[in-house]
Amino acid sequence: MNAEIRNIKTNAELALAEAYSAGKTRLPGGRNVVALREEAAARFDALGLPHRRVEEWKYTDLRALMREARPIAGAPDAAGIARAKDAGKRIGDMDARRIVFVDGTFVAELSDLADLSPGLTIRSMAQALAACDPLVEAHLGKVVPPEREGVVALNTALMRDGAVVHVAKGATVERPIHLVFATTGQTPASVFTRSLVVIEAGARVMLVESHDASAGHQVNTALELVVGDKAHVDHIKITGGPSDLVHVSSLMASVGAHARFNDFAFNIGGGVVRNQTFVRFDGEGTLAGLRGASLLNGKQHVDSTLVVDHQAPGCQSREVFATVLDGESRGVFQGKIVVRPHAQQTDARMMTRALLLSDEAEADSKPELEIFADDVQCGHGATSGALDEDLKFYLMARGIPETDAEALLVQAFVGEAIEGIEHAGLRDALMEQVVAWLWARGG
Amino acid sequence: MPAVQETIERVRRIDVDQYKYGFVTDIESDKAPKGLSEDIVRFISAKKSEPEWMLAWRLEAYRRWLTMREPTWARVDYPKINYQDYYYYSAPKRKALASLDEVDPEILRTYEKLGVPLREQELLAGVVRPEGERRVAVDAVFDSVSVATTFQAELKKSGVIFMPISEALREHPDLVKKYLGTVVPTSDNFFATLNSAVFSDGSFVYVPPGVRCPMELSTYFRINEKDTGQFERTLIIADKGSYVSYLEGCTAPMRDENQLHAAVVELVALDDAEIKYSTVQNWYPGDANGKGGIYNFVTKRGDCRGDRSKISWTQVETGSAITWKYPSCILRGDNSSGEFYSIAISNGRQQVDSGTKMLHLGKNTSSRIISKGIAAGKSNNTYRGQVMAHRKAKGARNFTNCDSLLIGDKCGAHTVPYIEAKNSSAVFEHEATTSKISDEMLFYCRQRGLSAEEAVALVVNGFVKDVLQQLPMEFAVEAQKLISISLEGSVG
Question: Which of B406, B420, B425 sits opposite A371 (nearest CB)?
Answer without folding.
Answer: B406
